[in-house]
Write a structure and sequence with these properties.
516 residues, alpha+beta, 22 helices, 51% helix
Length: 516
């Protein structure tokens, strides 16, 4: 009897050890991937890959750290997902432009059926079609038409900064600029005035605050990294709400807006905003399309998409939401970081002020005359170099290819380490310093191509770049022309960042304003 008990106990121990070993090995099943390709990288941990090091060093700085150790091309693991990290300019050019057909799509991300319809997530011909619908909204002609609306929003921004100047106290300026960019997007994109700047508790701004503060340790994202095959299941289940849950308010807002616009109709004399352009791109009877109906349309080219299919209600909703969320965060953050740079570099601020006074005088800034301010461009470019809102660009390899002798297998993710590139002293000496002169015409003529990527590059670069630059410059000109920006006792230099997927200052950006 005792022998039998001992045997049973030993069997249990062996089975337990085998299960633990199997679990351990299963979590390392992809970890020989880069050895076969002949590239190095940080050593991964079973199941977690390099997530522990990402968490410890931070998503905003870990790629700089790894670049110094492993060079410009190496491999890392997000969970069990192999990812090739690149900061070599020639390699980047191949991925983003020369071999674009091999890297057409962005990195798959946890979303639901609406999120996957946005131009940021769409794939192949679907992405190409959506881009043709949206592109007219971002033309130079359209930018000129938008200028009066942007100026109205900028005037309100100046009123609010004036109140801060009168108080004589320091302020965290992120929400100030967030309200401005929300107002600009609402006015130019949808033809409505929401006046969030006049209401500090406006729900659009309140709900947008934490929209991008998503950690890779979010349960849904984390599970997809450990079990990539479970991503589709996560998206179809309630788990996806852990990622997109904070978008619900914006979806409801945009859905109501779309319905109201359809009911009132589109007046040809109205401003040609994005919402109007999308509604006009719809084909009667195709407001909703299931996959089987779409197959029957036999879409062979973009003309077929435009003339046989059109854009659906859900696709319009997805573009409205992405315009609000992406447009709000990027420009608001850039204005915030620019303001910090002006406060901590008073000589640069004075030089910019003198340029504005000399060239514009009292003229209202518009799409054309702000192009005549080279130092403003330099300050904007340097702000975007130091504070790239999205610090990496992901591309999915849909067809195996070879770049600079390295075979890139099908389905692997290639990620451009933008932040590491922008802080590489080979291209930007003393990268921690704010030096706008790096972007003078003479300096740019010597700049190594594809070492500066705040908006990406190639066919899939940021579609909203022109609008982002215009609303930034109009606000910057009016702010610098009317106010001095000064540091306070709370002003950090350098700024401490939250370790999130996008760049967020941990303790805010504190400055004070003084009327000139």
């Amino acid at each position: 009897m005792d022998v039998l008990c001992l045997t049973d106990h030993a069997t249990t121990l062996v089975l337990g050890a085998m299960l633990i070993l199997t679990f351990y090995l299963f979590g390392r099943r992809t970890f020989s991937y880069f050895k076969k390709l002949g590239i190095s990288g940080p050593p991964p941990v079973s199941h977690l890959g390099n997530l522990i090091e990402v968490q410890r060093k931070g998503f905003t700085s870990v790629f700089r750290y790894w670049r110094e150790i492993y060079g410009d091309v190496y491999g890392m693991f997000l969970g069990v997902n192999p990812t090739i990290i690149i900061s070599d300019p020639e390699f980047i050019q191949e991925v983003l432009i020369k071999k674009f057909s091999n890297f057409t799509n962005r990195t798959p991300f946890i979303a639901d059926e609406i999120g996957n319809l946005s131009v940021a997530a769409a794939k192949d011909d679907h992405w190409k079609y959506l881009r043709t619908v949206l592109a007219p909204f971002y033309s130079s002609h359209q930018m000129r038409a938008m200028n009066s609306m942007i100026q109205t929003c900028a005037d309100t921004l100046m009123e609010n900064i004036g109140k801060m100047a009168e108080s004589g106290t320091g302020n965290d300026v992120k929400q100030l600029f967030s309200a401005y960019t929300i107002d600009v997007i609402a006015a130019t994109g949808f033809g409505i005035m929401v006046d969030s700047q006049k209401d500090p508790n406006n729900p659009l701004v309140e709900k947008a605050k934490d929209i991008f503060r998503i950690s890779i340790f979010n349960p849904a994202i984390f599970l997809s990294l450990l079990l990539p095959s479970a991503r589709k299941l996560i998206e179809k289940s309630g788990l996806s709400k852990m990622v997109i849950g904070n978008q619900i308010y914006f979806r409801k807002f945009c859905r109501q807006l779309i319905q109201q616009r359809k009911e009132t109709g589109i007046n040809e004399n109205m401003h040609k905003n994005l919402l109007n352009l999308m509604i006009k791109a719809q084909l009667k009877g195709h407001e909703k399309l299931d996959p089987e109906e779409e197959k029957e349309l036999h879409l062979e080219n973009i003309t077929d998409w435009r003339t046989k299919r059109g854009i659906t209600d859900d696709e319009i909703l997805a573009q409205c939401v992405i315009l609000f969320l992406a447009g709000y965060e990027t420009t608001a953050s850039t204005l915030t970081f620019f303001t910090h740079s002006m406060a901590t570099n008073p000589e640069k601020q004075q030089k910019l002020y003198e340029e504005i006074v000399e060239i514009l005088g009292d003229d209202i800034p518009d799409y054309d005359n702000i192009q005549k301010l080279p130092y403003l461009d330099m300050c904007m470019d340097e702000t975007l170099r130091m504070y790239s809102i999205g610090n990496t660009l992901g591309r999915h390899c849909n067809k195996a290819c070879t770049i600079k002798g390295l075979k890139i297998p099908e389905n692997v993710i290639v990620r451009v380490a933008v932040d590491a590139l922008h802080y590489d002293p080979k291209y930007y000496p003393e990268p921690e310093k704010f030096i706008p002169e790096r972007f003078s015409e003479e300096a740019k003529s010597k700049q190594v191509p594809f070492t500066y990527l705040p908006f990406g590059a190639g066919p899939r670069m940021c579609l909203g770049m022109r609008l982002a630059k215009l609303e930034f410059k109009v606000a910057a000109v009016q702010m610098i022309r009317n106010f001095k920006i000064l540091p306070t006792e709370k002003t950090e230099n350098p700024l401490i960042m939250v370790e999130a997927l996008l760049l967020v200052p941990k303790n805010g950006v504190w400055v004070k304003f003084e009327r000139r």
